[in-house]
Amino acid sequence: MSPAAGDLADRLGPLRSAFDRSFMDPPRPSGEAGDHLLAVGVGARRCAIRLAETAGLFADRPVTALPGPLPGLLGVATFRGVVVPVYGLASVLGDPPDPDPRWLVLAAGTPALALAFGRLDGHLRLPADALVRYPPDADRPRCLNGMARLPDRTLGVLDLRAIRAEIHALAGHPEGS
């Protein structure tokens, strides 16, 4: 064996041992603690949506308009071969409609629902202590379930389940259908 090969074997032994020991150590935290959110602009309002409550984010998706009396119903769009109703998020929140709602977020869960808004401000990954959840019995702003504290501002965190329930109530559907 050449001197270089012997030196390499001497260095590989400790590396193999460290690699093998790493499987016996308890898992280390991944640094992913907290929540992932989308920071969005809805009309004049700035808020956040938990990524865990979404099934997709789409830009400039065509929406086929539908006539009807439901406030905020913009029409329907197709997602992965499924026709989904699209509501203007600003209208659902009681604000004037967004003039150009180019972004669509597909809410997780059933029935399928997409919400349109005008501005995507970015992705946020916040530690757990930067998110404040409202207690279930708290008198809170409608369709919000907490606040996200950022260094320069605070964002209301939208509750997509509450928004879906509100849309169902507006449409006259019984709860759970």
Automatic annotation (TrEMBL):
SUPFAM superfamilies xref list: CheW-like
PROSITE patterns attached to this UniProt entry: CHEW
Chain ranges of the CheW-like domain: 34-169
Domain of life: Bacteria
GO biological process, one term: chemotaxis
Name of the protein: CheW-like domain-containing protein
